[in-house]
Amino acid sequence: MRLQMTSVSSRNRYHVVIHAVFIVLAVITQVMTSVVFNLGKDSWVPNALFKTSHRNVSETFPLEVTMDWWSQLYWNMIDVWSTVWLFYGVVGLLNRDALGPESCNPDIHPPMFYLMWTMINISRMLSMSLWESHAINGTSMVGWIPPVLSFYMLYVSYSNLDKHKAWLSINRPAVISWTRYLIQNGLAAFAWWSLLNYLVGLGIVFKYSAGMPDPLISTAVLTLVSLCTVTWFLLQSCLLKKYLCYTFSVYPMLILGLGAMFTRSYRIHDLGANTVFCGLLMILMTILSITHLISECLRQDNSSTVEPNVTFVETVWQPEGNMKNKLPKC
Fold it and tell me: Keyword set for this entry (predicted)?
């Protein structure tokens, strides 16, 4: 028996060490990515890494849906958000109780979660280098990694939180809110922003490598954005509502991205079809965002009035000796 307890304790310590190592790697690569990205701005080039800025390369390969220069500021916002939720994971390692570090018990975000974020940061730095060297095909081949992995990270976070939500609601209710509003909303903002940038980069490849006409490519990019958004709205409203209903950052990020496309292509005396399409999509995103907010507020109001459910959960999780005192009297 003592040997079994020793082996279990050793495995737990090993898991905590692996967890800590991967979180530290994620934090280090996040800081490195932020530094590399800022070195590629107009005010910092030329330097040891970049001879020209990201913006100048974008002007070399323009599309009708190319985002305006100020959209680069959104990457700074997203990187700050990502750094905050990574440090929340570090704090969770330092906060311990009888079960061990909060980040490991329960294991909502396992070590592989942070390893994938490290891979995302490495791919971002590689794509910046390829983009600066005008290797648009290579940039597109690497550019799919951040959106795909970040959406998979969202899946891991949603499913694990739902799995442990009953226990957390009793023992660590604050973890639920932090996970939903800090980590999942931050991941969703990153996933959709990287997806939007990848679709624009894919359009650049089709125009400048395959020779397809720009208006058609830009229309295809906007169509893909609209299809992805409508699919997300249907999942959020019906099929996966219990997982996605607390994620509010998607539509604002899409509105900002479409707004950057709109302001760059807008000409008051020469309004293009894709500019109009972009403006209509912004209106659609606004409607979807308001609809989601209203439906979630109404759902919260209805659920807050159901007192018997709260009493039942409290009763079930009480020790057996205390359950008699908690039962309502007839």
Answer: Membrane, Transmembrane, Transmembrane helix
Q: What is the pLDDT of residues 245-291, one digit of tens each?
A: 999 999 999 999 999 999 998 888 778 899 999 999 999 999 999 99
C-beta of residue 94 within 8 angstroms of C-beta of residue 283: no
Cα–Cα distance between 229 and 254 in angstroms, integer?
9
Q: Which residues contact 273 (CB under 8 A, 6 or more apart)?
A: 215, 219
Torsion (CA) 143, 85, 184, 14 in degrees, nearest 10: 90
Residue 141: both structure tokens together: 């081949």
Q: Is 211 left (phi over 0), alpha (psi -120 to 50) or beta?
A: left
CB-CB contact of 207 with 63 (8 Å): yes
Calculate the alpha carbon distances from 162 to 169, 213, 235, 300 in Å. Answer: 11, 46, 16, 17
CB 64 within 8 A of CB 216: no
Q: Is 36 exposed, middle or buried (0-12, 13-18, 19+ CB in 10 A)?
A: middle
SS3 80: helix
pTM above 0.90, yes or no: no
String of DSSP letters for 161-202: HHHHHHHHHHH-HHHHHIIIIIIIHHHHHHHHHHHHHHHHHH
Scanning 40-178, the segments in alpha helix (DSSP H) are 54-60, 72-94, 111-132, 136-143, 145-171, 173-177
Q: State the virtual CA torsion across 199, 203, 208, 214 in degrees, nearest 10.
A: -150
pLDDT tens-place string over residues 54-103: 889 999 999 999 999 899 899 999 999 999 999 999 999 888 876 778 88
